[in-house]
Amino acid sequence: GGFGEVYGCRKADTGKMYAMKCLDKKRIKMKQGETLALNERIMLSLVSTGDCPFIVCMTYAFHTPDKLCFILDLMNGGDLHYHLSQHGVFSEKEMRFYAAEIILGLEHMHNRFVVYRDLKPANILLDEHGHVRISDLGLACDFSKKKPHASVGTHGYMAPEVLQKGTAYDSSADWFSLGCMLFKLLRGHSPFRQHKTKDKHEIDRMTLTMNVELPDSFSSELKSLLEGLLQRDVAKRLGCQGQGASEVKDHLFFKGIDWQQVYLQKYSPPLIPPQ
């Protein structure tokens, strides 16, 4: 990313491969990135408890005189943005697989009062078998004591309450972003990015005002899921009515999904990354 490099490394005593993310202290200082780097370290510590198979977790952290280093789960299967460009859009069935694993990752974070804030295909990494992990917690935030109100994230995936300056929000923001991301996996673009516009203000304006038109080719269950996730009104949004992730998991679109089997990674991934 902006502050350093990621290397593959092997732990000498076990032979296990990890990713080593090294942040350059000088570069962090120059770009006033101390809070961001420290935040990532804290967020990684928060979510790395309780063994979640769907988040890139941290095993160790250390620093040298000029580097900050995190040892993370190694994901060498590429990201969903890359696979979307290679594979083309996904079917509902394929998307359901990714959605289910990502939902369990978000549930794990939200149970620890962490809102992720940067859900998009580029941040979803695949392992060698094709299972997903949410990566890069640089923008994640602990909302246990104080709700955030900063406008951070990626345009086209940010919830209306995140875009509205000074509005406090919590895990609600991630459910809206999930809706945007699932739409992108199915259609190839964010629901709020019309005609390939690069204009961030236009994308934000659409997010705040536009009612998303869902194609007739979508099943009624899928339409209902996306309408629930893309609700501008937080009080009406799926995942935000008091039961959190359970509301999303219980939706008809996921009928027949055994969530314990999802957690155990027993469902077959739609795409196995080339070795």
Automatic annotation (TrEMBL):
Pfam families: Pkinase. The keyword Transcription does not apply. It is an enzyme of class 2 (transferase). One of its GO terms (molecular function) is G protein-coupled receptor binding. GO terms for biological process: G protein-coupled receptor signaling pathway; regulation of signal transduction. Residues 255-275 form the AGC-kinase C-terminal domain. This is G protein-coupled receptor kinase. It comes from the Eukaryota. It comes from Ameiurus melas (Black bullhead). The active site is at residue 118. The lineage of its organism: Eukaryota, Metazoa, Chordata, Craniata, Vertebrata. Residues 1-254 form the Protein kinase domain. Its EC number is 2.7.11.-. InterPro entries: AGC-kinase_C, GPCR_kinase, Kinase-like_dom_sf, Prot_kinase_dom, Ser/Thr_kinase_AS. Keywords: ATP-binding, Kinase, Nucleotide-binding, Serine/threonine-protein kinase, Transferase. The keyword RNA-binding does not apply. Belongs to the protein kinase superfamily. AGC Ser/Thr protein kinase family. GPRK subfamily. SMART domains: S_TKc.
